[in-house]
Request: fold
Amino acid sequence: MTMATYLSEASMRVHSDDNLLHEKEVDETYLRLRNELSSVEIDGVSFFLAEGDLLFDEDELLFYARRRRLASLRFAERLIGNGPELGDAQTVTSGPAELMGVIRNGRPVRWDAGMLLTYCVLRRTFDSDENYRTVVAAMDEAARSWESICGVSFAHVSRLDDSADMKPDGVLYPVREISVDSTMVASAFFPTDAVFRRRMLINRLRYYTTSFDRVGVLRHELGHVLGFRHEHIRSGAPAACGDESEANTIPLTAYDPQSVMHYYCGGRGTHLFNFTENDIIGAQKLYGPPLDDTHVILPEDTETGWSDGSEDVVGFESHIKDLFRQRDRGAMRTFRNFDLWKYEDVKEHALDILREVEGGTMPCDGPWPQSSVDQFKKWVDTGMNP
Ligand SMILES: [Zn+2]
Reply:
């Protein structure tokens, strides 16, 4: 199974193929990119850094060069009016720009519906506990922002944060801190990448001091994880980042420089990487609307050993916290600035919350079942145990 998965994912990588070697010697785009792009070494392996945060080995760079060449040909065709999409008489404007997904065999690549996208944050790779906590919090917020706009769900498997393994079983990908002398702030992977390349990298030398929004950077990287490519490709903008002037770029109205997936170099885009309306449309085309988390009602009286004689004590951790879904938590953090998964916060606002859930005005997408309301009331009435 593992082998088959690996082979299918690596099917584009044909090492030691003579044709490929020959192509590398003569392909001008490839040779130019090889010259222009800086390289980054990770775990002893060299990668070319393209578009600010994409890492390619030599074969991948060749495939990338092919795609760039095709894209610029198509773009030139459109400019002179003979493009296959626009016809002779039309100007260069097309429909609203939406997120561009990775395409393979003519189909967009995405994770399976309902799949939990799990990650851990490898604590020992971080220079300090402060860095580690910063990234844990930023990842959490970035993940929740994607969950709030489309049907994906991420989970931080924190028990694997102290794993000795750089690629622990039990998560889709680890988040690691690295230290590379490069413009790269962070880097992620695409769903099509081989299993061993699934990791999110945080550059210690750039991430904590970047002028970009740190949650925004991870929101952008998670966009790659979900299968979205850089927005600027549609513009015919240059592949190399930073070295080329704006004079070499060709503006195209149909692209969205405010998109979360606009790359964060070249002086365009925003520093926040927030979602635009078109991002939300594009994300929902691929993943559907946000998942409606089901209420988790903990068993109150079962023979599984749940009851330990303290069943009369309603505690926040054991009985209350799980009444709140991620989306409830997100809404309260956004609109009321407190955290429904934090004991102190819920205790402080308990009476307000009780009034809202009793009145059915919260959650905003439908009232709690009576049993949950009773549970919460009992917790308030019995002294709000932690
Ligand atoms: Zn990117």
